[in-house]
Amino acid sequence: MAVDSWIGLYDIFLAQQGFVVIKMDNRGTPSLKGSEWRKSIYRKVGVINTKDQALAAKEVLKWDFIDTDNVAVWGWSGGGSMTLNLMFRYPDIYKTGIAVAAVANQLFYDNVYQERYMGLPQENEEDFIEGSPVTYAKDLEGNLLVIHGTGDDNVHYQNMEFLINELIRQNKQFDIMVYPNRSHGIYEGANTSRHLYTLITNYLLEHNK
To answer: Is residue 11 among the annotated active site residues?
Structure first.
């Protein structure tokens, strides 16, 4: 939930580097907006929430102190999926994206989650496909860094390889970082967290002036 407070020192650090850091609640988030807001996402994960983020970003870009040529987005897990969807579906807005441990294809993800929010693929497979970032990989235009642990116990590594193969098939250039045998949190092993956040930071600074 986006609240009137800083969440984590990393946001403060990015602001110190000159970034305007914004978090926004799209429809479907557990914010205090009632049942209709929460349930509107049903069978539309990856579609409604992505659209809301993009429309909100367009409003932000009207502010005169925003550099509209250097808009970046990054996220982890579901946020990684959001990052991919935003980069692929709204390339006119987002120039740089970093997707960590992202679900590329909803048909690969946990049934306990997918069935709760998307129903059964036997009944509406087209919704699973429509909400999956990989479906729109052909439209990538900006700078994309994808990061995944090969031992991810939540968003399995096949998501990464499926996405990579599609980007290759579409002749799209991108950057990747693989963390051997790391889980979904990508924290195991000496210096892993520091290495990961240094990578993210350097990518943002390199591609966003």
So the answer is: no
